[in-house]
Amino acid sequence: MKKITYTFLTVACFFFLTSCGKKTETDPMGNSVKEATTVQTPEELGKEIFEGKGTCATCHKADAKVIGPSLKEISKIYKDKKASIALFLKGEGEPLVDPSQYEVMKANFAITKTLSDEELDALEVYIHSLNK
Ligand code: HEC
């Protein structure tokens, strides 16, 4: 009797383990579901450039003036004047926030001119996203 119980448990264990391991996620059509690839929003891309290769975060903070004006101030002025931050970063705009310090900012056009339109738009989206 003991032996039968033991065999039964071993077999039960075996099926339990294998059934678990074989389980695959499927959608209603029966196709296996692949892990969703994360899509980066423009806001996230903008933040990444701002803090990364753009080096903008050295001089600009969200709330406070450091070397450059705060991002909230920049966003507010650009919204009020319905101006484009992306165009300014291409060197095609006028300084609207602090023209007396324009020369300091102008040096960064060496970096921003290497960015794509998509990346410049992302920077603009990110700057405005902090002004909510
Ligand atoms: C070395 C410091 C420094 C760095 C780095 C820097 N900025 Fe600036 N930025 C300034 C200063 C100073 C001003 C104020 C002058 C002005 O308004 O043009 C300014 C102004 C600005 C303005 C407002 C322009 C206007 O209309 O007056 C924007 C937009 C801006 N910066 C975006 C950026 C972005 C995006 C980056 C990164 C690619 C960046 N800055 C990197 C110093 C910096």
Q: What does the largest sheet look like?
A: none
Bound molecule types: heme C
- Provide the CATH superfamily of the domain at 42-129: Cytochrome c-like domain
Going by CATH, the architecture of the domain at 42-129 would be Orthogonal Bundle
What level of helicity do the residues show? 40-55%
- What is the residue-mean pLDDT, rounded to a whole number? 87
CATH C-level label of the domain at 42-129: Mainly Alpha
- As an assembly, this protein is single chain
What does this structure look like?
The protein is mainly alpha-helical. It has a domain at 42-129: Orthogonal Bundle (Cytochrome Bc1 Complex, Chain D, domain 2). Helix content is 52%, strand content 0%. It has helices spanning 2-22, 42-51, 71-80, 85-89, 102-106, 109-112, 117-129. The longest helix has 21 residues, at 2-22. It is elongated and about 90 Å long. The model has no long low-confidence stretch (mean pLDDT 87). The structure holds heme C (HEC). Heme C binds next to helix 4, helix 5 and helix 6.
